[in-house]
Amino acid sequence: MTGLGAYRSAKQWAEDIRSKKVSSVEALRLHLDRVEKFNQEVNAIVVFDLDRAHSQAAAADAAIARGETWGPLHGVPMTVKESFDLTGLATTWGLLTLRNNIATSDAVAVQGLARTGAVVFGKTNVPTLLADWQTFNPIYGTTRNPWDLTRTPGGSSGGAAAALAAGLTPLELGSDIAASIRNPAHHCGVYGHKPSFGVVPQGGHAIPGAEIPIDMLVCGPLARTADDLDTALDAITGAEAENAPYWKISLAEPRFRQLKEARIAVWLEDDCCRVDSEIQRLINSALTVAEAAGGRVDAKARPFSDAEGAHALYVQLLRGATGAVLPADLFESQRQQAERISDHDQSYLARTLRAVTQTHRSWFLAHGKRAVLRRQWEAFFQNFDVLLCPAAASAAFPHDQETERPYRQIQVNGKAENYNDQLFWAGLASLAYLPATVAPIGLTSAGLPVGVQIIGPYMEDKTAIQFARLLAAEIGGFRTPPDYS
After folding, report:
1. What does DSSP assign to residue 440?
2. N- to C-terminal Cα distance for the chain?
């Protein structure tokens, strides 16, 4: 079991384990051998739970010997994002103050994966407070992109995407409020799915003291195939713990079986965020294939007319949500900064500070505007099945750990653009609680991966994943980074 054997899908690993072509113990050992070979340079997996993993893998093999299977991920080794609780291990979110925050139980979503047979052997790196599209923190250091170690793997599920791309794990569990699954999937050339808000429980994925789910935050899978996204999503779908005895969540089946049945809207560029021409070229190439297969493509349709207003609303609600879980000293610092800014200052930093410290009345009025926007999306999806758009403004960019986030820039079409503008593409799905799948669609001329974001109707996650699956059948999917086969 060497070479490309490590790049089996989770589905294929499960089939091979069930048919006794390989044991769960052997599958775990292969991935740990690759960790030993590649993880030091990539720094993707930063916490290990090996005693429990070895025990679970051995139990999985014993079950197979008895003719028992636990579910579709029986015996499959995998990792999860550092921000998820694993019993007996620290959950730090990259904060030094949480180094001793030891979990007493597994996160609810992790429990769902375990019930289907998955064997979790470690946790992957995150940026501090999960608040960046780069992945570095003072506890675990910097995660690097396997396609180019000088570049970001994305964030905040950057360790997750890098581990998948490097063949260190076949399946991952991440989280997303501002493209934290979608951005790293795009930058590392893997698949990622941001579920509809409320579809996957957040229990065990929280800063200490946060007792309720965070608005717009979702937990979801990353993988190397759309099929694996689907399998993992089924495993983790469910209500929050307090509602679980009474609520049952059932996701709608895909709207179409073939590309020729799909009604596709596309949004490639906007004044709110410039998009590199290479990303637009690759998305257009994928659209050409979809159209040739019979899909109906419309490049002009929009779910709403005021893109700038929707973006401002997203930033307000996003920073209201993330600001609510800031440590007290950081919140107080931002409150004091907010008092000093001019009412006329519309910079990203100023808008962030206002949103973090807004009144409940301000948040409530913004929440009402979101309800109107959600109804506009609902009407839009009466005529379209999916909306395709970029996941980010550029392909993976060089590490920048010196510049504070509000002042960072990236290169787009050879020009410096505001790093934070990319929130526009994150917000299209997040603000309205919509599902979004990112699927790899090719490489730039510099050999860096690009993904397309596929937004679907609320609670119709499987439609977005289905489009990714059908697109891969036409143009191919995940590619192995050079030097990692």
Report:
1. E
2. 12
Residues of the chain with pLDDT under 50: 1-3
Looking at the domain that runs over 3-258, which CATH code has it been given? 3.90.1300.10
Per-residue pLDDT tens over the stretch 456-485: 999 999 999 999 999 999 999 999 999 998
Question: Tokens standing for 73?
Answer: 């991920």
Q: Is 2 exposed, middle or buried (0-12, 13-18, 19+ CB in 10 A)?
A: exposed
Q: Specify whether the CB–CB gap between 326 and 128 falls below 8 A.
A: no
The answer to whether 388 and 266 are in contact (CB under 8 A) is yes
What 3-state class would DSSP assign to 398? strand
**CA distance readout (Å), 189 to 76, 127, 170, 176, 287:** 22, 19, 14, 17, 18
Q: In the structure encoding, which two tokens stand for residue 312, read together?
A: 């401002």
Render the burial of 143-160: b for 16+ CB within 10 Å, e for the rest.
bbbbbbeebbbbbbbbbb
Nearest alpha-carbon partner for 40 in 144, 165, 134: 144
Length in residues, the chain: 485
**What distance lies between CA 150 and its chain's CA centroid?**
21
The domain ranges of the chain are 3-258
Cα 453 to Cα 53, 119, 184, 233: the distances in Å are 34, 29, 12, 17
pTM of structure? 0.97
